Prior knowledge:
The complex is a heterodimer.
Chain A: H1 2-36, E1 38-41, E2 45-49, H2 53-59, H3 62-93, H4 100-108, H5 115-125, H6 132-139, H7 154-179, H8 183-191, H9 196-207, H10 209-224, H11 228-233, H12 245-255, H13 259-287
Antiparallel strand pairs in A: 1-2
Chain B: H1 2-29, H2 33-37, H3 49-57, H4 60-91, H5 97-106, H6 116-126, H7 132-136, H8 143-154, H9 158-166, H10 171-179, H11 184-200, H12 203-208, H13 217-228, H14 233-265
Subcellular location (chain B): Cell membrane
Family (chain B): Belongs to the binding-protein-dependent transport system permease family.
Protein name (chain B): Glycerol-3-phosphate ABC transporter permease
Amino acid sequence: xxxxxxFGLGMLYLFPTFLILGVFLFYPxxxxxxxxxxxxxxxxxxxxxxxxxxxxxxxxxxxxxxxLKVSFLFVLYTVPLTIILSLFLAVIANEKLxxxxxxxxxxxxxxxxxxxxxxxxxxxFFHPTLGTINNVLGFIGVPRIxxxxxxxxxxFSVALATVWMGLSLNFILFLxxxxxxxxxxYESALVDGAGYWNRLFKITIPLLSPVLFFVTIINFINxxxxxxxxxxxxxxxxxxxxxxIVYSIxxxxxxxxxxxFASAQAIVLFIITLVVTLIQFKVxxxxxxxx
Amino acid sequence: xxxxxxxxxxxxxxxxxxxxxxxxxxxxxxMSAGDVNNAALLPSEPTFQGYQEASTRIPLVRFLFNSFLIxxxxxxxxxxxxxxxxxxxxxxxxxxxxVLFILLLSTMLIPFESTIVPNHxxxxxxGWLDTFQALIVPTLVTPFGxxxxxxxxxxxxxxxxxxxxxxxxxxxxxYLSFALPLSKTILGALSIFAFISTWNSYLWPLIMTSNDxxxxxxxxxxxxxxxxxxxxxxxxxxxSIIALLPTLLILFFGLKYIREGLLSGSVKG
Lengths: 291, 269
């Protein structure tokens, strides 16, 4: 009897949470699976099973294959660079110096700035004739670069913007990781006569590996799900050079109205995210150094 | 000494790259078109024209109000719903809570972006397109928020709960008079997260709204960019500054909370 009562009470507390997660996460992911195998009409009406048709047309769609390719390239451009730069920021801002709180604040600032605002600002910086970057480069004699309007540069430019926007989150995670490392370790290393670089690579980096591992997962997923900066900076162009997968899903579903085809793409996105998370968990477990 | 000087130089250069673009956007927002064409560093004659024109091209005040309404509602909802769920997971010993907790964690593996198509249909069927509900209800609870608070509740001393139970304190009373008040820091962190991430969300309001009456400021920014890009930069910069200022200020004042929250939710957890 008491058990029933406790169960009822527990459910009461959890009901709003599972109602919302159920309606807006569990149900739609299952529905996405269904859509991806169906002919879906306007308003989400399922009008018959089509089997693997959408998936097969994904494989033969140059637009989707390109989208997959640029999404992975985008991950490659953004993730390592973001991690290296933000680790650097965390290491220099963690030194005991006067004023380091101010620097920590500045390095965290992007966390409080929306992707849309940062992108709108960078849109100006990237502008070919009036933009700040070309003005500065022109000053040292570099010819004008079509950052966002040339198919050769656009993906790189959006990646650059994404790195800048992503530094703060990583910085905070790394700084926290650094501050969790015990002072004693450094002191005994100093007694042993270890130099700065030795301490950095023999103590700091190995002890930071759990954070490093976690940050890598977050960055991969964030990069793979980028949308706002693409919509504001390039709208997927020029000639689909920046048509990242979420933008592709958005375009397919909400501009062209192909719900079924868009859902098949969404399932691909879901599976890739899932596989990467699981692989990183497995590999991470073995490699990571725990204190 | 030498090391200090090098560190300061590195810090200043890094800070410049991180923040100079924002300061320059602020400067451009007060410029005339002539200054922009001359690539001026500071406005020759500071003017509010960019801000004025931005507010005639889009209903700026309306959009700001909408963003505040949506972000505050989500924030309040998350504080209560996430803490209720976390409380049940930690303090109420009912059968099946382990399974439910794993179920909750597994939702973290579902990217919201992969569910937008059926979610759009759901909102359509509920008749919620172009309403505030559509922008508020789906994020009233997040698995991350529940997880964050659960980790914190687990650290509360067991003796306190035992003593309260002896005095005949009910679960709900304990939740209200002990669990919540003893979690101010972490609730502060969650509030800041909820506010900032709602204020800054972009994809969801983009597909949910076609009506200026409910649109948030981020979508307004997109409207400014599409109507104005490459011809009138002070307007776009003014819009950006307005969109980023509230959350940037919150971040600066609440950074301590955010760091504590992020670290207890991720690294230590």
